[in-house]
Amino acid sequence: MFKPKSKSQQGSILIFTVLMLGGIMAIVLSMSTIAGPKVRTVVNAGSGSINALYAAESIIEWCIYTNRGNPALPQPAMSNGASYTLTPAGCSASPTTNQAIGTYQGVSRSLQMETLE
After folding, report:
1. Distance set, CA 109 to CA 5, 17, 49, 65, 101 (Å)
2. Does residue 4 form part of some domain?
3. Which of 37, 55, 62, 80 is 20 to 30 A from residue 23's alpha carbon, by CA?
4. What is the pTM assigned to this prediction?
């Protein structure tokens, strides 16, 4: 075991260890303060983005299904709280461009579909 040379050095290793741990802890807390909000933003946007895209894709798929002359179905209803907007409001088989905007918890994603003759 290590023996200090004199009685005045007996607590120096303990003090040095406490200072090193304090410095490391300060660095870790500083980094978590900087990176924490960014990670939280990415996580929240990821789930909102996927659900918004799902809503827009659902209404586009409904338009494709309807335009192919399949039996009439009601417009999709989102059970997760997402909503969508279809422009123009109806899906017609004539050459047109439809835009679907899906929204979930403040995140919006847009898809566009062009119908050809």
Report:
1. 70, 52, 7, 21, 6
2. no
3. 37
4. 0.58
Q: Which domain holds residue 26?
A: 12-115
Report whether 101 contacts 110 (CB < 8 A): yes
In a domain, 77, yes or no: yes
88 cis-preceded (ω within 30 degrees of 0): yes
Q: Is residue 6 part of a domain?
A: no
Q: With contact defined as beta carbons under 8 Å apart, do 102 and 84 qualify? A: yes
Instruction: Give the tokens for residue 103.
Output: 């929204």
Instruction: Tell me how many degrees the CA angle 78-56-59 measures, rounded to the nearest 5.
Output: 70
Q: How many domains does the chain have?
A: 1
Cβ burial, residue 110 (10 Å; 0-12/13-18/19+):
middle
DSSP for residue 93? S
Residue 98 lies in a domain: yes
